[in-house]
Amino acid sequence: MASSAGQPTQALRWLVRVPDHNTAESSQKRMSLQGEHKARLTEFKQQNPGTIQYGGPTLDEETQKPNGSFFVMRHGQGGFATSSDIRAWIEKDAYWKNGVWAGVLEIQLYQANTRPKAENDF
């Protein structure tokens, strides 16, 4: 959407949360599959720049150990059109296929205020 310099624009994004199974075995699997998981994400991000805006592990508040993953993804052109598209993509991940993730997806479409990047923004 067009905007005046510095004025916010509206953009649709997907917020995706995938909780882990709450077991010691799941934590061990997460660590052993981390390289494969990250390699897939790196390849996807290189082939689809800007589709994944943010992402990483969610953490248990007390232990600060991973208890799932989250992603903020672009919607529509240059991103995922539907929640079914996201599900299909998630189900190809090593964490999903090997039982790290609990088989539950929380997918929410939201509207984000964004603004053009200023020259001195990092």
UniProtKB/TrEMBL annotation:
It comes from the Eukaryota. InterPro entries: Dimeric_a/b-barrel, Sec-metab_biosynth-assoc. Gene3D superfamilies: Dimeric alpha+beta barrel (3.30.70.1060). This is YCII-related domain-containing protein. It comes from Acaromyces ingoldii.
